Amino acid sequence: MTTPIGWPSYDSDNPNPPQRSVSQEPRPHDSESLFQWALRALGRKAHSTRELEAKLLARTDDAPAVASVLGRLKARGYLDDRQCIETLAAARLRRGDSGRSRLQREMAARGLPRDLVNQVLDEMFPPEEELDHLRRSLERKLTTVPEPLDEKRLARLYNYLLGRGFPAEAVRREFRKRFHRPVEWGD
Predict the structure, then answer these.
(1) Is the residue at 94 inside a domain?
(2) pTM for this structure?
(3) How many CA atoms lie within 13 A of 107 on its CB side?
């Protein structure tokens, strides 16, 4: 039997065929290969500076090379935290299923600066728009909740909306308006 080209060959009498070793150590990279890799990563999806830095440091131990690559990307306009926030917020706002606090949590998890996140969200996501998102999210969820809406189902719906990042007081007001009963659940 012949081994196809590129496949490892080994002795069939040997019960332990050779294994490929997988190194846990970061591979050495030069600055240009890191830059090209970073460009490809940014082409696939938006990254915050902190996210991209962590990914580059996972590829190499050369912190000065990583800093150099990040500087080059910023200088050329490929890496911009404000643009990243705007891109992420626009995508979530199109879906219309998240409140402001959820957007803030998601962006904080990506390492984006809180002040910049708040500034961009103030511009892109005014409070009256958040109420529209709350109403749409409630409407969509109500299509999946079986009737009758007893206290247990209403409590689940309330918690669902809180989990989506909508303010508790806004959810309570909407429940009072829509279901004509006071909401007695806490946060």
Answers:
(1) no
(2) 0.69
(3) 30
